[in-house]
Amino acid sequence: MKVVLLTAFGVGGASVIGAIFGFIFKKISHKFSDIVLSFAAGVMLSASVIGLILPSLEYGGKFSLLVTILGVFCGALCVNLIDKIVPHLHRLTGVDQEKHPDKTNQLNKILLFVIAIAIHNLPEGIAAGVGFGTGNMADAITIAGGIALQNIPEGMVIIAPMLSAGISHRRTFLIAVATGVVEVIGTLLGYFAVTISTAILPFALAFAGGTMLYVISDEMIPETHSHGSERGATYSLLAGFCLMLAFDVLLG
After folding, report:
1. Predicted pLDDT of residue 225
2. Are residues 176 and 111 in contact, defined by beta-carbon separation less than 8 angstroms?
3. Which residues contact 29 (CB under 8 A, 6 or more apart)?
4. Angle at CA 110, nearest 5°, toward 26 and 182?
5. Using one digit for the tens of pLDDT, what is the confidence trace for 138-192?
6. Residue 32 near residue 173 (C-beta atoms within 8 A)
7. CB half-sphere exposure, 162, CA atoms < 13 A
């Protein structure tokens, strides 16, 4: 339980670390952000497949394939439903903005952007918590590490827009901390849900894997390929994937 708590606060704390970097480096180049985010996407991709989906097949019993496929799609649909309610990242970076938005409009969009990140943090936290249900600490830590890596650049990119919209430094930091707290809650929810009933473990693993795959494909990859750094982002994703693959082999 101590490891789970430390992991929960570590995953949530990564958002805070990213926010601190955001205050220090207010103008982060898109190229650097894309490379870091792509590396995190590769780590998450490896973690979702090796640490969640494959164990789901292993623990699923007679109907393992059906349970795993159902879980993956349910996880993806859950995040998709969130996207219907809360505007998505790429919709808040210029696509939907009017040519001359007023200050209120700008602030609303920034706050919606932050809310979108906070809500997406919930299933990611659940994925980290569910990972501990397998009893494989190496896989669980790998999953949590991948999510934490993603949270750092996310925490960085929300700071400058909030400051530019006139939000105070103190309030900006508190909002960034709140997005990390959501992830802590999700991690604990995922862990307790699995420990209460191991019967739901295969589905929960696949569900968590589906949420991660959706976020990677629908949010992270498009975002990292929209600023002219496609090639670097692709190789960075491969590097992250292979690094986690090597960890799994060496620690397995």
Report:
1. 87
2. no
3. none
4. 90
5. 777 777 877 787 778 777 767 776 776 677 788 888 888 888 888 888 888 888 8
6. no
7. 23
Residue-level length of the chain:
252
Predicted confidence at residue 89, as pLDDT, reads 43
- Among 116, 148, 144, smallest CA distance to 130 is for 144
Query: Of 146, 144, 88, whose CA–CA distance to 115 is shortest?
Result: 88
Between CA 249 and CA 185 the distance in angstroms is: 30
* Intra-chain end-to-end CA distance of the chain, in Å: 22
Whether 152 and 36 have beta carbons less than 8 Å apart is answered as: yes
Helix and strand numbers, DSSP H then E, in the chain: 11, 0
The SS3 assignment for 152 reads: helix
The Cα–Cα gap between 22 and 15 comes to 10
DSSP secondary structure letter of residue 53: I
Q: In 131-148, which positions are buried (b, 16+ CB within 10 angstroms) versus exposed (e)?
A: bbbbebeebbbbbbbbbb
Q: CB-hemisphere CA count at 13 Å for 163?
A: 16
Domain ranges of the chain: 2-251
Question: Per the structure block, which two tokens stand in for 40?
Answer: 């995190």
Does this model's pTM top 0.70? My answer is: no
